[in-house]
Amino acid sequence: MSEGPPRSQPSGEKKRRTSLWEEWDTPQEHWLLVGSHRDGRERSLLLEVAARIIFPTVLVLSLYLLFAGHNRSGGGFSGGLVAGQAFVVRYLAGGPMEVRAAVGLRPPVIIGAGLSLAVLTGLAPIFWGEAPLTSAYVSMTLPVLGDVHVVSSLFLDMGVYLLIVGVVCDLLRTLGAGIEEQSPRPRRRPSG
């Protein structure tokens, strides 16, 4: 049985569909390119790929430490240090450009936001006639999560977390840039 003549599609539409089908899994970022690094030094592809895989996992662990810090070991400082280590791994793998790619904001903005959140959370109880750093406790039931208990000091921990992450990123940006300027540039291998 014949299905009839094939439906005609505009050539641009057919080419676009074919192109999308063939290129759907190609990386949009150029972080897997092989060769020398942008600044002329040799790259370790294994380290770069491992850093890209480990980075989100370590950030999730740092968030767990942040949120579990009221009942178990952890908190804003511990979570911030673990997140800072994730950024150090990214820096070791790809240099300052990797840290800039991972953090959308400049480090002083992150430091200021964290410090402001921590100070405002610590001073907020004064407006309700309480002593500074007094905690409030709220319980609620959410559809997917069930019973959730939130302590106001969580916001203080979030401020400390942002402050530590901002300081680590700023140290990588400033001190790391000085170290890279002082180190001699390796010579490029002649091609051919």
UniProtKB/TrEMBL annotation:
Residues 47-169 form the Na+/H+ antiporter MnhB subunit-related protein domain. The keyword Transmembrane applies. This is Multicomponent Na+:H+ antiporter subunit B. Its main location: membrane. It is found in: Cell membrane. It is a multi-pass membrane protein. The lineage of its organism: Bacteria, Bacillati, Actinomycetota, Actinomycetes, Pseudonocardiales. It comes from the Bacteria. The keyword Lipid biosynthesis does not apply. Keywords: Cell membrane, Membrane, Transmembrane, Transmembrane helix. Residues 1-20 are annotated as: Disordered. Belongs to the CPA3 antiporters (TC 2.A.63) subunit B family. The chain crosses the membrane at residues 45-67, 73-93, 105-128, 148-172. It comes from Actinoalloteichus caeruleus DSM 43889.
